């Protein structure tokens, strides 16, 4: 199932007060008297798919124009995925798109129930619709679209070389970027390497150890307060055991007092178990105090003022502090910085070798890309020649017998993602005229026919689900008009086609015929867009042919046209 527009609702646009168009999957034509609002149908479709908003198109008296479209799409296809990616919803294969334009020029858009930028509709339209109005034949006027369309027209001949080129191009771009980074930043890299070498050399000279800064800080504290520490330990020892230089009555030490307390309790411990427990605890306290006193004596003996060692510790701490100030929060982080920097320095010192390797690979890839690009150009040139002939033949049948379309390939200076070819469609209006870009070589009516010819040729190679044409038959009639109708019907075999026309020869080929009718006050209301049955088509074609709906001659001619179209299917 290919995507298609199922229904379009238009409110407040031009002469249209309100109109609903129910569209078939095939060839739809919209007809009506001059000024009935047929072109507003194309304008509405253009707005629905992101076209430029023009406040002057809003119906007088209305504060805004609203266009809503119901599309049938693949529930798990690419378009559905794009809608879901932005938070919209697709309900059982139906997608609702809405656009409003205020009289002040403000525009809002909704996609699957979600407010989106108008540009999102334009992006989505690339996969859904090609709108060709008198002033907005945009799709195939874009150079990138022209190259992409030509590539699809070239078919399988281009697939393999283009895939090989794309892979080589991506690698070539990566290598070029790496070379650029390495060569343009040579000075910065050299400065970085010098800084790293200086830091690593500085750290190597000091040779810090993990936790060394903490250990030295403690040692400096002890050495700086050696006398105070030794005096405190000695005083504490004396308080616990007493001063051996004093007489027995010289002082009361802790051990003596504990001994007296223990002796007093031991004398009566057998009379009460609770008191006996206290006596044991006094004994334990005595042993503990003796141990502490012994340790204090040993500590006091070990603590000595050492000015030389203190100076050495302070000097070492100064060196470590200098490193910590530059490279980390402590000695461990300084060592971690040194490890990382050594690895980075190894990378920087290996850049010269890397530059050489990348340079050789870049040269090889350049040669390979040149060969692949030439192969792409050869395939495109062959496809361009076939395409030009096919479109020119179509134009001959579309009342432009002297027109000629060519595809001009221009080589770019640099490699691009798709090769070195710039593709431009050009048209010569007559044999003596030089081929010019499409938007310069054809008038508005001619450009519509050129677009039709191109779309017919590209129908199998550049598939678009829905095509919209406004006045594609401008300036032609008779046999040429029949051929336009025939080619639109041919295009409708692979896509939905919506055409606004004033030619009965074109309208006769439609699968569904819609007529726009104005009310007495000149507006188009909801009932003003009618889907015609066979009898209705005969009457409308008769009006278009003879200016009279009930003309016998007109009706006979209308029946003849419908028969011709039916036979052609």
UniProtKB/TrEMBL annotation:
Gene Ontology CC terms, in alphabetical order: bacterial nucleoid
Entry's Gene Ontology molecular function annotations: ATP binding
Domain of life: Bacteria
Keywords assigned by UniProt, alphabetized: ATP-binding, Coiled coil, DNA damage, DNA repair, Nucleotide-binding
Pfam families tied to this protein: SMC_N (PF02463)
Domain RecF/RecN/SMC N-terminal intervals: 6-521
Residue ranges that the Swiss-Prot or TrEMBL entry lists as coiled coil: 162-189, 355-382
InterPro entries cross-referenced by the UniProt entry: DNA_recomb/repair_RecN, P-loop_NTPase, RecF/RecN/SMC_N
SUPFAM superfamilies: P-loop containing nucleoside triphosphate hydrolases
Protein's GO biological process: DNA recombination; DNA repair; SOS response
Role summary: May be involved in recombinational repair of damaged DNA.
Family of the protein in this entry: Belongs to the RecN family.
Protein's name according to its UniProt entry: DNA repair protein RecN
Phylogenetic placement of the source organism: Bacteria, Bacillati, Actinomycetota, Actinomycetes, Streptosporangiales
